[in-house]
Amino acid sequence: MKLDVIKLDGKKAGSVDLDEALFGLEPRADILHRVVRWQRNNAQAGTHKVKTRSEVDYSTKKIYRQKGTGGARHGARSAPIFRGGGVYKGPKVRSHGHELTKKFRKLGLCHALSAKMKAGELVIIDEASSEGKTAALAKQVANLGWKRALVIDGASVDENFAQAARNIDGLDILPTMGANVYDILKRDTLVITKAGVEALEARLK
Hints:
6 strands; elongated; alpha/beta; Ribosomal Protein L4, Chain: A; 35% helix; 205 residues; 6-stranded mixed beta sheet; 2 domains
């Protein structure tokens, strides 16, 4: 399939052939959901922790005699039944991540690219280069109508473009290896450079 290529000033710069296996699939929500869930679970810190009865700072002295009180038998104030005692079976530090095969992760990325293509939210630009001036780039982005856009460049990102884009709200840029399903779906517009298209095809084939 062919798609027009534009420059940052909005002028046409020819066209590019897109691989059907990457951009022509019928997007499946179940695949996208599984990959996004894998990403977000791996990003979760899992540092939640409570103190058990062996960790709370209480004396281990028997709080009252065993018999004759009319109450239940208790040995220490650190028991979970008391206020300030340890927590029974509370959360511990752990990883929330789970495994997902490379083949499935690649498939998820292909479906994310295809979803943007089908929704008409995919833009191909000639190159992501700039003089490093935020004001000039912000004006170009506004003229193109990009509000929440993700730019995917080739193997590396142009330093001047990254510097200019740093303070523009809603504009993010990633190299090809940083392209992921969550970031692609989160933005309204996906912008890929010609170098980015070639690198994605080489990565996903």
